[in-house]
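Anyone opening a protein record will find just a pair of labelled lines. With that in mind, the following record should read easily:
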Amino acid sequence: MAFSSIRRALLSLAILGSVQALPAQVRILRVPSKDYPTIQSALKISSGTGWPVEVAPGVYREELKMLGAATLRSRDGPARTIIDGSGVSAGQPALWIGTGFCRLQGFTVRNGAAGVQVLSNDITIDNCVFESNTGVGGIVIRDTASTVPMRATVTRCVFARNSGSLSGGAVYYQYYRSTPGGPPSVLSFEDCVFDGNRAGSGAAIGDTTNGGAVLHLDRCVFVRNQAAAGGSTVSWQERVTLANCSFVANGTTGSLGTVSLWNGARAEITNCTFALNVGPDVYAGVFQSAVAPFIRITNSILWSTIPAIVLAGSGSTVPVAKVSHCDVLGGYAGRGNINANPQFLSSASGNVRLGATSPCLDRGDSNANGLPRTDFEGDPRRIGARVDIGADEFDPNATQLWGNLAQFSVSRGGNYTLAGSGGKNGEFGVLLASLSGTAPGFDAGGVHVPVNLDGATEIVLTMPGAVARFQSSGRWSASLAFPSGMPRELAGKDLRCVLLRVLPSGVATGVSNLERLVLVP
């Protein structure tokens, strides 16, 4: 197939959007500019007027405070617009957000004692990256209101390599209300990735001992997070709802569960996948210790170690778990439960999407309480006769991609093999790859094509790294060779690959699932 046909196919992915005009009385405070040379100089005006602050690409090392209702957004996204906490006073967050409605959009926040500290009554954070914030965590939420509950909504964000000395390496919630009681606060996370975070407990998300907030997690991915004790990913003490979430290769050096619930926390877990989670005495899925709590787990895969669910009561009180239509390693009593290898696409690379012969296909409860409309990457939740078990809804018409490795040494080099399926004989598979930390989307023929895969991670796609025809079986594979002694600076980044299926006519029919390879020294 001619290169021009491939380019036409790529250009067909371009997404055209419209921008709604702001009211005439609203000004956009642009940074840097003659009037606003720094972000803080613009925030002082924004906090009093509500005018949005728009920041141009660059690395900004300044102490930032949003003192009141304000909007802080980047012009070109998180890959090119960085708030670096290495320039602030010791022990201070890279960004401090006060009370009132506040919005943060499109930044990478790194190298702070905390990335962002929030006191806001209503905070929205969208399309941000929080990485390498050490001390307290990526986001610290201090609920200091009297009786008014706060709301924190976090969407399309990545939390990578953050750490906290106590609980919540990526997100730490602290309940500090002067007048306890009243309706609970609500924290919602959608389409977020938590990768390689560390803490004493709740390496991804944790709270203080007195709880205080309802936690909602939807379409979130938790991978390679490590905790010293309870809750290698989540440790929580209020009501929790989890839908379409996957927990893969997380661990603890202590005991207790991948998700640990305490002090009366009630949990509703629907269409989630727990797999390959490790550690001494770690439970594959859920640990509950409280007085008269209740857990409902439906349409979920718990496939790491035995036991998968542990209930530890207080005194004579025994927690209750209702588990149904789940695939549980070792089995579990309940309607529709099975104990069968879920047949993930690639356990070697941590890809826990379902294969075409998985026993989890069409085995879920289509009438489950809280059943989500889509799966973790936005596919319709019900494609077959019944919903599937797990975070992934298998699509027989989709192009799939999986690798043979989860990690790769930049010093030793070698081969990384990827395979694809879902194509037809004569069609092309175009392998596209990039490193994490580059600009979202790619440029071809003078057109910028934005890409947001799996509803969570924006990446740059380079022009074809490999092109091959699908075989008659619909399979495709390629091996990428890496020399030994690559720059050590690459360690800590991800190689991210997608597979584009292209018809002989040059029309692109879709982009495959995202596959990650973690680069190590």
User: Anything to note?
Assistant: The chain is about 5% helix and 40% strand. The two ends are 38 Å apart (CA to CA). The helical segments are 3-11, 39-49. Confidence is low (pLDDT under 50) at residues 1-24, 280-284, 437-465.
